[in-house]
Amino acid sequence: MRSNKKGEKSIINLFKSLNIELLEDTPKRYLKMLSELTQYQNISNKEIAKSVDKIFPINNKTNSKDMVVVKDIEAFSLCEHHIALIYDMKISVAYIPNNFVLGLSKIVRASEMICKRLQLQERIGNDILEVMKILTKSEDIAVHIKAKHSCVTARGIKNGSSETITTNFSGIFSDNDEIKISFLNSLKT
């Protein structure tokens, strides 16, 4: 990352307002960290989908319409309210193929990219759902996220044991309780 003197000066002033003197290279490192953690801030879901698009048509040999689940994708993000870490995040994504299957690593990659924005956990799930619909050409998507929020664990209420769980369903996962329960049960194994 090239030098950003204006940004570094802003970091120095921010911490000075808190009566904190920083080491000489800290502002540059802090700016670099924020840049890495928000590198997809201004990239649309459509652009993310396009950048990771790798689908394979289903043929007679792989004519599966069974649920595909990628679970326990480890990720973290920054909460847009406090710029605090959403951490220990486990993302699980499922879809029912619709003439195509998606390269499995692409689900992980898209999830990680979506998390590298100032985010809300609820929006992360919605964004993953939207990208998965684009990538898989299927409406049948489920997303489950379990995470801890440092704005709850390290400040405010300071409760280290609470977790936030969000779910997002579309297509058959919204309409069919048996499929929804099957997905949720798959997360327990």
Summarize, please.
The protein has helices at 5-16, 26-37, 45-52, 104-115, 121-136, 150-153, 172-175, 177-186, and strands at residues 55-57, 68-79, 85-95, 100-102, 118-119, 141-149, 164-170.
CATH class category of the largest domain: Alpha Beta
Number of strands: 7
| Poorly predicted ranges | none
Spatial extent as radius of gyration: 19 Å
Number of domains: 2
Distance separating the two termini: 42 Å
CATH topology description of the largest domain = GTP Cyclohydrolase I, domain 2
Strand content: 15-25%
Oligomeric nature of the chains: single chain
* SSE-based structural type: alpha+beta
The CATH architecture classification of the largest domain is: 2-Layer Sandwich
Would you mind describing this structure in some detail?
The chain has 8 helices and 7 strands, in the order αααββββαβαβαβαα. A hairpin with a 5-residue loop joins strand 2 and strand 3. The model has no long low-confidence stretch (mean pLDDT 94). It has 2 domains: 5-37, no CATH class; 45-186, 2-Layer Sandwich (GTP Cyclohydrolase I, domain 2), CATH 3.30.1130. The chain is α+β, with helices and mostly antiparallel strands. The longest helix has 16 residues, at 121-136. It is elongated. The strands form 2 sheets. Strands 5-2-3-6-7 form a 5-stranded mixed β-sheet, sandwiched between helices. Strands 1-4 form a two-stranded antiparallel sheet.
